[in-house]
Amino acid sequence: MSVYWNSRIKNICPYVPGEQPGERRFIKLNTNENPYPPSPKVLEAIVKAADERLRLYPDPECMAFREAVARRYKVRPSQVFAGNGSDEVLAFAFGAFFESGGPEILFPDITYSFYPVYADLWNVPYRTVALDDDFLIRTGAYETPCGGAVFPNPNAPTGTAITLRDILSLAGYLEKREKILIIDEAYAAFIPEGTGAGSAAGSIEGHPNLLTVHTLSKSASLAGLRAGFAIGDEKLIEGLRRVRDSFNSYTMDRLALAGAEAAVQDAAYYDDVNRRVAATRDRTAESLRGLGCTVLPSAANFIFMKAPGPGGAEFLSALREKGILVRHFNKDRIAGFLRVSIGTDEDMDAFLAACGEIIAGYRPASNS
């Protein structure tokens, strides 16, 4: 701590990202990255953009990228905001739409742990809403006086999803009270068809208070590029622009813009990749249940599981000893669980073999 820090920085508890190992070779299942490479068209676009034009500032309007998103989601470019990853877009949204010192905003008690950080940074009061006994978001619990609401769909770290009908019902309730609903759709590309869930981006036209936030880190295999966007009413997009332009009008660089545009345009490649991820997810979940594990129904590119023997922290350490990284959250209700990103089939076979060995060899400590 420094005497030069202001009170906000002294009291804030920053977000802690997942481990990024530098030396030892691990099977890395801890940060929800896509196990497959980006589209070749993305790499080609980045190489093509790496020329003498790097001496010039990028397009502050990110127009080519926004137009590509607009075509993909059947909205207008004016309804799209581009940013340096969805985390930045979310940070801007907290600053644009929630009142400092104002009424409490709502988000789940078990959810993306950046939300309380953003709230504290912007001095926004918040209240958490408990997931139900099945770790599901119940939108009816959010129909109460508040300053707005934000949550992921699918939720993280649980992986559970709710229906579009429930989201739009809540959006309607909040709209009548002139409050915003922000849906963080980082994992929406992995939602199974026929579940009633899915992206809410196509519903913004009738819901001026609905903002969806997206990233290319997961579904487009571009965690290392840092590209994200939001879709919403033009007035919401203008609010995000006002915050952005109070910090840095050039949040996306030329190479990121080129790669992001190409990724959004190559839907066929990524649809195939993400179907493979979802198939591996479902197979892995079923195998874990066969080992006696509790596994929540997942609509994301990860699973949330609890082993029948060791506790969450103990199981985390045992997997690490076998060269496998997963994520543990030492929080109420979920301390016994681990979040496991979906890797390649070979990665998950190794993970399942390690789980089987750990569970078979587990002997609880004697009380004598």
Sequence of strands across the biggest β-sheet:
2-8-7-6-5
> The biggest beta sheet, please?
5 strands, mixed
Beta-strand percentage? 5-15%
Shape: globular
How many strands in all? 13
Number of helices: 11
Instruction: Give the termini separation.
Output: 45 Å
CATH class of the largest domain: Alpha Beta
- Binned, the helix content reads 25-40%
Q: What is the element string, with H for helices and E for strands?
A: HEHHEHEHEEHEEEHHHEEHEEEH
The averaged pLDDT comes out at 95
The CATH architecture of the largest domain comes to: 3-Layer(aba) Sandwich
The number of distinct structural domains comes to 2
Structural class: alpha/beta
CATH topology title of the largest domain: Aspartate Aminotransferase, domain 2
Low-pLDDT stretches are none
